[in-house]
Input
Amino acid sequence: MYPFTFTKARTERAALAAGARGGRYVAGGTTLVDLMRETVERPTEVVDITALPYRDIAASPSGLRIGALARMAELAAHPTVITRFPVISQALNLSASPQLRNMATIGGNLMQRPRCLYFRDVTARCNRRAPGTGCAAIGGENRGHAVLGTSTRCVATHPSDLAVALVALDAVVLLRSPSGDRSVPVSRFIRLPGSTPDVEHDLRPGELIVGIEVPAGAHTARSGYLKVRDRQSYEFALVSAAVALDIRSGVVRDARVAVGGVATVPWRLPEVERALVGKAPGTRLWAEGSARAADGAKPLSGNAFKVELLTRTVERQLTAIGGVA
Amino acid sequence: MSGAATGAPMSRVDGRLKVTGGADYAADHNLSGLLHAVLVTSTVSRATVTGIGTDRARSLPGVVDVLTDFGGVTLPYPVGEISFFGQPVAVVLAETLQQAQHAASLVTVRATARPAVTSMTDPKAAPVPDAQTPDYTRGDADAALQAGPVVVDNTFTIARENHNPMELPSTVAHWSGGTLTLWDKTQWVQGNARNIAAALNVPVSAVRVICPFVGGAFGSAGRTWPHQILAAHAARRVQRPVKLVLTRKQMYTGVGYRPASWQRLTMAAGEDGRITGIVHETRTETARYEAYSDDTTELPKMLYTSANVRSAYRLVPLDVSAATFMRGPGTVTGAFALETTVDEVADQLDIDPVEFRLRNAADHNQVTGVPFTDRRFAECLRAGAQAFGWSRRRPPRMRREGDLLIGMGMAGAAHHNNRTSASAVARINADGTAAVASATGDMGPGTYTSMSQIAADTLGLPVSRVRFHLGDSRLPTAPMHSGSKTLASVGSAVFTACSMVRDGVVRMAVVDPASPLHGADPAKVAVHNGVLSAPGHGSERYADVLRRHGRDGVDSTQNWTPADESRFSSYAFGAVFAEVSVDVALGLVRVRRMRAVYDVGRVVNPKLARSQAFSGMVAGIGMALLENTTRDRRDGRIVNANMADYLVPVHADVPDLDVDFLPGSDPAATPIGVKGLGELVIVGVPAAIGNAVHNATGVRVRDLPITLDKLL
Output
């Protein structure tokens, strides 16, 4: 670990000032500290923001407002989240371990860095960690890597389960800087690697995540998260699917489908959604819709199975949420 | 040996210490003036080192030295050459761990890399014979395969696995007046002391190794590894105590692994359901600088009756770190191939797999021709089938619950009852307590507890008045705490020493006119609760005898040496049954329940034995479904060297487990009637799970781990 200074920001103003001069924000510390130990991250100034007032979870008819410092465990256990946004609660409970969920915050969850084995090994080539050095995963061990949203520079999957649920529900990230507030959809906040995989977020220097808004809709209550992985718990997804459906009078009125573990960012499946909306729900429709799930997938040497597994996972979760009728 | 202690499901005598943090593990020792050592390791698999840049590291506050010259020590590979990815090339010594870690990250290594071969599948990887495992032939196996009529011929691969115990490899080295004390994580304090002495070129009498507690090892702490030698070397060089703890990542190349294996097993059988021939070929990876034999051939040669067997074991030297034994070494690997093949042959013959095994179970050691001391393989198979509900098994792919295909599988298991010469000292103190000691270890099986039980019953004392000591190289000689031999070997030595010291006190009493036992036949003197008594005589306590003789204690050091196996062959047996579900679309395999029956002779402590059996099942689930040390074949780098990416079972992966031990004792195996247990309990597990997956899906996966991509 490289030497660094550590301060605790008592006020938002102090935090933003520290951020403006290059300080790295830390809350739960479950990602940043790990990466500092591996010397993947080498901040010179670390600013603890856990004293800031961003911990509330507020539910209203129009949706959820989640403070950036709410813990994963708190959000997962929130009664309204469990009943009206089950996909969020499930995605959280299928993440990490109880110890980590008790520490890690929602803002930090969106800021997680990839689980790529080469990204985390400072002796390996990695364009995300050390731009221009190449990607060791392409042509290396890439069973866990992405088949969608990849570039010739990077094929790392986005690690967050929560972000997949948030992207499915059109959630928005609330950001604050000395120059003011702005909001960005989660789907745009987390960036495709393209030619600059080291730029992972639409986050300006010193900007703070203060919260996340999730709009409510008829679909949010009928939602759920499926996570497929080798180990039954405490593992990142091989494939995951967040599904939310609004089915009324025998017709799919609204459909939200996003997948994780297969893409460099939380991956929305608009083609699948379009194939579902306006149709009669049922086994046939779920098969038809999921047939589009892997459109454009580009498997690597070690992860061709993810293409088929993706389709089957989406079909399984559409069936689970939509029913077999 | 009889009494209340043996056979009782006692809790661990050291349990409270462990759960309250009172048990001192190697890295818990903090001596005054102690320096922290951090290794700098190579990032190529094969190279010549041309220079090591230490200036930046040395300039940091707190850094005392950066050792790159390993002169005066003998390491298992040539210094100055890189023989594997992760090889230690420098040792950074600093006042704090953080200073040492940071300094280590600033050391630069210049090396001229050469092409490396790091995978058995590399065309340049060439198998060579293993001196320790000569080719074996009886009868004419190839002719038997030709004759058939049923022949099953398949290849099996098993991924490399790392032991991943909770406690990381740790050493604290302290020199004082030419004598080295090591507080070290090890399964063998005495062997380690000898190895360290040899590596540092000092007399063995100058090295003392202490290890009272081990936080899991599974074989990884059996031998002496470079980090232990380097810690001792560094402490000698700087003349200060040094603590060296490997990182989890360094553990993957620092303390061995179960080598990746390739096997081909061909089996022929007649229509009568009898095996007629077996041909078994194996290759396992090994370091180019050191041959490690993970002999897989034992069970295929001896578990089933077959007049015709041929086996050939080959090593594949690679530019990798040294392999070592990992729980059930070789045996579980060979058993996976054997027990999967047996299942397939039974399937082809349309004979129930349990019945097929019963029909073919060997009634004597097929290799040596001698009878077994005790052989209850058939009883294990029958009892296991009954307890598990094997009769409910359906043909492959015939049982479905929603999206899940359900299957049952089973496998036989056996393990040689390893025993080695061992010594122990037993002492009865004047206060009526006893102390018993041997230089053995306790890496988890509960040695402290089981030895206390054996000692208590042999001495006629309650367990609460017996203390067992281990983990110090100055104690009486014990073999490596490995290979399931500790209870059988050290337990027999403890029994012998306790018998002798008890008998000694009895003799003191019966010849003493002042004793109520004067004149009694020593053979008729019984001791219960520390009280000596004989029919027709009075009684008195150990303490009374000793006090009258003015002794503060009586002790006896005894060696026990097993008989050779020229007349009897001693094996422990078992049968393992598993039920799995396999998601029909997603390929996810989950073990739903598992039950095993074992014949291990006398069970000294059913609670500990049960824990052992469960841990073997958990490890077997890992081997069957999860564990895989993944290497980048381009440079030999291990890419999942951490506990998030190297998957071991978590609670959610571990279902309803149960185990039964056949009641009994095997006095021909050891004087205390026990047979070793620790390895046996993993041997059948992977094959049982694999066979259950086949029963569920109709698909045979012969490559471990069985991951979902192999079942889509």
